[in-house]
Amino acid sequence: MSFARAADGEEATRTLRGHLPTGAPDFVYLPVEVPAGVHEIAVSYRYDKPEVPKGTPGNALDIGIFDERGTALGGKGFRGWSGGFRNSFALSAQKATPGYLAGPVREGTWHVVLGPYTVAPQGMDYEVTVTLRHGPTGKTPRRVYPPERAGGRGRAWYRGDCHLHTVHSDGARTPAEAAAAARAAGLDFVTTTEHNTTSGHSAWEGLWGDDLLILCGEEITTRNGHYVALGTDPGVFLDWRYRARDDAYARFARAVRRAGGLVVPAHPNCPFVGCQWKFGYEHADAVEVWNGPWTADDELALAAWDNMLVSTDSWLPAMGNSDAHREPQVVGLPQTVVYADDLARRPLLAALRTGRSYLAESFRVSLELTATTPTGGYAGMGETLRARAGTQVDVTVKAEGAPEGATLRLLTDEGEMRTGPAPSLTWRTTPSLATYVRAELRHPAKEGAALPGAMAAMTNPVWLGGGAG
């Protein structure tokens, strides 16, 4: 699309129509020649949704935009992404639609980016309309980011939800509504993790406080799985436009760490298109074992995570997050409860990385797991109890706020070793018998069900002998 320069107060509109066949590229870039003197760029789009056979994906088309600085992978030209959640957006120096970044509309070649998420057998017909409004550029407001520390209680247990969405991607809650929901859930911290955009980083002004820390992040939604960039520097954009076969994931995992964050594969066994994790776990710092209300997907993720624990060199701490988008999805169901030196970004991330944490369905539930020796040896979740192979080890798990009829389980690399009713359970073992011990608190199983009851809380492992930690 090409536009001519116009007088202040005038606007010009162009429409482009096209067709995408099945097997279209993951991303289609439509160039827009923007002249000098543009105040605002507005984009709308639509596409057809023909009937498809049952069990066949239909048409779904995402959209975003890059400015005159280009579309290079990981480059600086990113100006926003709304996926398939909006059919229009606009941005100027002064303001932008949620999901997009305010800033000058400079002269040069911009690109509207289409992401054909799924394409029907008939293909996809689309129409993109771009409107340029001419006038003075205006001034971009200074972005205000959350502080890195809240009041806290010093070294203590802190409850957090590190995967949730607002109107800045495909959520329905405003940041204010999400913050209120976090406080109602008894959380001490949350992470803003919008899909493929950083616009939410500066959307929480006035919503944090001594009782609630806001961390910055991004849910990076590739075509071969999603991962949370957790606790990154405010404003740092991390690209998502690659597959496992493209050999780009390791590069961006390193970029997450350079930005001070953690790499956390999200809902790794989710059955939806593009959601299952295909990149492996070599470059991850933790894994989201529990995503939202407990389902069979989480049961699969738990089993895969437990299998990782046999390798003490490559285990990853488990996390639980709500991935809440809208009512009635509950912020803080589940939540990760972490023992950190302070309610601050770096201490929290350090504790999450070591697995000094457990997962719970709500603030009403607490879980404690310890391993001790007769000579005073002690270790908790994410720690190693240093002891010889034949040393007597007493393992104790205690639950507070357990649901009625709930069952405690103690599991090792051999499987379930002890089970009993809440609120407490003990077991005597040795490091020669168990490399690690972890605990679960389960709701009663439904009559006739093939799976155990839903999870109410679970711990990261305590390592015995010379294992990890």
UniProtKB/TrEMBL annotation:
<dbReference type="InterPro" id="IPR016195">
    <property type="entry name" value="Pol/histidinol_Pase-like"/>
</dbReference>
<protein>
    <submittedName>
        <fullName>CehA/McbA family metallohydrolase</fullName>
    </submittedName>
</protein>
<dbReference type="InterPro" id="IPR052018">
    <property type="entry name" value="PHP_domain"/>
</dbReference>
<dbReference type="InterPro" id="IPR003141">
    <property type="entry name" value="Pol/His_phosphatase_N"/>
</dbReference>
<feature type="domain" description="Polymerase/histidinol phosphatase N-terminal">
    <location>
        <begin position="160"/>
        <end position="224"/>
    </location>
</feature>
